[in-house]
Amino acid sequence: MSHRRLRSQDWFDNPDHADMTALYLERFMNYGTTPEELRSGRPIIGIAQSGSDINPCNRHHLDLARRVRDGIRDAGGIPIEFPSHPLFENCKRPTAALDRNLAYLGLVEILYGYPLDGVVLTTGCDKTTPSALMAAATVNIPAIVYSGGPMLDGWHEGELVGSGTVIWRSRRKLAAGEITREEFLEAALDSAPSVGHCNTMGTASTMNALAEALGMSLTGSAAIPAAYRERGQVGYRTGRRAVELVNEDIRPLDILTRPAFLNAIRVNAAIGGSTNAQPHLAAIARHAGVELKPEDWQDYGYDIPLLANVQPAGKYLGERFHRAGGVPAIMWELLKAGKLDGGAPTVTGATMADNLEGREAVDREVILPYDRPMQERAGFLVMKGNLFDFAIMKMSVISDAFRQRYLMEPGHEGVFEGKAVIFDGSEDYHARINDPALDIDERTILVIRGAGPLGWPGSAEVVNMQPPDHLIRKGITSLPTIGDGRQSGTADSPSILNASPESAAGGGLAFLRDGDTIRIDFNQGRCDMLVDDAELEKRKAEGLPKVPDDATPWQRLYRQTVTQLSDGGTIAGADEFRDIARRPPRH
Ligand code: FES
Ligand code: MG
């Protein structure tokens, strides 16, 4: 039992509002709760339920919540489960990214306006994790992340097939005429053999790994497959720990410090994590009031080697990764190499270093030692130039063939010049990519714009554009691509993405024209269109490319408030919200 006065007591046991207490209490009685329970001074722990039929990646949380409730009860708390706004990556049109800030807003209102002392954040599918952490940072009541875990490994015709990744790879095989549409579908369905989120190191597994790296979930919990018995067991422990967090008054902002974010950036490189981690971590940091600069990705992440042999950068999937030691084994390698701040506090109550002590990997095929990695320098390269102020490139998915073709030209190592072919949005790309008139060859750079937070709206995962079928049939399976959108965390494409400011916000991509030469200098981290100033001024006078009108009320509100991907695509003013949420609710 807690000896401090709890937040929930402002509702249920407040002499200043004694007349309101009856109203606050009575409807909780109608499912059998008693006034004694709610007035006992025991912590009331919310379970933010992200699972539903419309969010299948998280749906098993509906069942797992039973074990979370058991843990909360056994530790002396009272569970109250409530739904959060669904965020299903694969089906929400025009993109689930549009809804991340909406889910954030909804969760903030619930955590702020109801009698909750702490919260278990159930996470899984891509944006469910960052939206929950953003809200926890704003309201700053004790909070702990409980991932639903990845699906079991997918197998198709004797080969591992990972969710998402199988789509991008099969799409190339389909274009090359190697498989039929029916075989495409079969492989995709086989990649999803059980409950859980994507079993590749896509955005879901990445963001849950980073929640653990930030110190916001129990050690070793992120990677446990959804269907394993350990998943329910760690749910029970998470529920227990949520109550203790309230008793010990450990809050998200005690944990979400700059060292924790830098740890997360390093872990992201070592696991070959999703490029979506960049805007999501930026958003969480902003809501937490932590300064995280776009260049931090290069300064702290770029030099970190790839240690996880997991798709899309590697070979294996979630089950093998978990059995090899999961996130703690990766972090233990980084800690031993002096690449982690071990003093960072965590929800366990111990430091990160204490949590990780001795978590040696047990399968070196899947988690490699720091000094014998899959690949050196596997983090994000941060780029700028006259096309944008900021963009990133994920180095862990750049294939040897691609390096040979574009980065190793004798005398021009690391510098590539090509002609731009531009698409305004993905409909334009799909309609025209196979048009022979475009004359695309292996010196072409594919550019997509109108895909950022304002343009899409929401920012679309479309920069992983594949070459036209005729090139794929010749064995050219990827071309350099640039865009102001994002790309799927499960994609293995060599793309320069998240370009900010986007075309619709007046970024340089808006003034690029078909046939312009683009110079990409990997040594300098620059990307420029070779167009003279007078010509550029002329094009600026022509205005920005058109983007679609708002199609829902939220799209309009979102566009009025959103920042660029370099700033996390948050609602503008995000760094002030936690100060607002310090004002106690009025009764
Ligand atoms: Fe939900 Fe990948 S689509 S986790
Ligand atoms: Mg995605």
Automatic annotation (TrEMBL):
Dihydroxy-acid/6-phosphogluconate dehydratase N-terminal domain sequence ranges: 42-355
Residue ranges constituting the Dihydroxy-acid/6-phosphogluconate dehydratase C-terminal domain according to the UniProt record: 365-568
GO MF annotations in UniProt: iron-sulfur cluster binding; L-arabinonate dehydratase activity; metal ion binding
Top EC class, one word: lyase
Entry keywords, A to Z: Iron, Iron-sulfur, Lyase, Metal-binding
InterPro entries the record matches: Dihydro-acid_dehy_C, ILV_EDD_C, ILV_EDD_N, IlvD/EDD_N, Sugar_Degrad_Dehydratases
Enzyme Commission number(s): 4.2.1.25
PANTHER family: HYPOTHETICAL DIHYDROXY-ACID DEHYDRATASE (EUROFUNG)-RELATED, HYPOTHETICAL DIHYDROXYACID DEHYDRATASE (EUROFUNG)-RELATED
Family in the record: Belongs to the IlvD/Edd family.
Record protein name field: L-arabonate dehydratase
Species, as recorded: Martelella mediterranea DSM 17316
UniProt lineage: Bacteria, Pseudomonadati, Pseudomonadota, Alphaproteobacteria, Hyphomicrobiales
